[in-house]
User: Which sequence fits this backbone?
């Protein structure tokens, strides 16, 4: 085996997207895999662009975002990125994370632009070639195919499976009805005499801060009992 031989290439990420809902890209995936396994880099570049275009159009269509058929891939891709929530909202609120996300978006767009340029210059179906034309090697097609596979899986995943938001921490002030119930059942205040000073605490406050797990458990039970 020489250094240009590869094991059979499979687009695992793109296939997962296809099997999970984007069924229309299945034939494109198979064609790209076949082109790579038959060492046709130019056709790989053509199909890589086509596959990304199909995924972007599917995302925009499902989200009700209009696009024009004449749009080139970079514009389709940017519009798709703008439509997606790429990270959880609580991370977006962090300034440092925001800057990193901006760089990530820019890097992905640069990668896609590079794929387009490779296709335009070395694609199988691009402009006619002169007799001295030298195409790229299979190793270049591999990196393009693997990159597109990763991007397709990423786009599909954040499109179809949005990030779950972290549960809001339990706040005492958010449960006034339950708090009033606990206070009425146990007297208005718990009083503590310290060096002649009388400290007063509501029973619900004592329960919340002393044993928050018990507070939460009884709160859920209270909510269940008072459902209509």
Assistant:
């Amino acid at each position: 085996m020489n250094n240009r031989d590869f094991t059979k290439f499979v687009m695992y990420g793109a296939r997962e997207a296809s099997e999970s809902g984007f069924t229309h890209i299945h034939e494109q995936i198979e064609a790209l895999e076949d082109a790579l396994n038959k060492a046709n880099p130019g056709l790989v570049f053509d199909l890589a662009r086509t596959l990304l275009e199909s995924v972007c159009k599917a995302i925009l269509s499902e989200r009700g975002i209009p696009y024009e058929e004449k749009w080139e891939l970079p514009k389709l891709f940017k519009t798709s990125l703008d439509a997606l929530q790429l990270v959880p909202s609580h991370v977006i609120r962090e300034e440092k994370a925001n800057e990193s996300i901006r760089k990530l978006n820019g890097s992905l767009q640069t990668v896609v632009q590079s794929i387009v340029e490779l296709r335009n210059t070395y694609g199988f179906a691009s402009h006619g070639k002169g007799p001295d034309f030298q195409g790229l090697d299979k190793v270049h097609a591999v990196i393009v195919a693997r990159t597109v596979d990763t991007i397709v899986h990423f786009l599909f995943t954040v499109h179809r499976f949005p990030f779950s938001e972290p549960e809001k921490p339990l706040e005492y002030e958010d449960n006034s009805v339950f708090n009033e119930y606990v206070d009425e059942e146990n007297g208005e205040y718990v009083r503590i005499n310290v060096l002649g000073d009388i400290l007063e605490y509501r029973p619900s406050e004592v329960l919340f801060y002393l044993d928050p797990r018990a507070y939460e458990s009884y709160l859920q039970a209270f909510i269940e009992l008072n459902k209509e």
